[in-house]
Design a protein that fits this description.
The protein contains two helices and four strands; from the N terminus they run ββββαα. It has a single domain, classed as Ribosomal Protein L24e, Chain: T. By secondary structure, it is an alpha+beta fold. 26% of the residues lie in helices and 36% in strands. α1 packs across α2. The strands form two sheets. The chain has a two-stranded antiparallel ribbon. It has a two-stranded antiparallel ribbon with strand order 3-4. β1 and β2 form a beta hairpin.
């Protein structure tokens, strides 16, 4: 499975390890993902999403139903 947040679209980023001697070696920065299950009372069902911590904060702010509507408007099947 890809390391992608289903709500925000955050992906793995690449960069460098930088030592004290300023040597650079490629590395990856992974998003902070969590598998989370939400109950949607408007649809009377449970939804499981793979989310970043930022997306969890967005859901706390806007609500799960509003976030699901935004995802469907973008064409993401939920």
């Amino acid at each position: 499975m890809a390391r992608v947040c289903e709500v925000t679209g955050k992906r793995t980023a690449s960069g460098n390890h930088v030592s004290k001697a300023n040597n650079k070696v490629k590395r990856k920065f992974y998003p902070n993902l969590h598998k989370k299950r939400f109950y949607v009372p408007e649809e009377d069902r449970w939804v499981t999403l793979k989310l970043s911590s930022t997306a969890l904060r967005t859901i706390d702010k806007k609500g799960i139903y509003a976030v699901l509507q935004d995802m469907r408007a973008k064409g993401i099947k939920v």
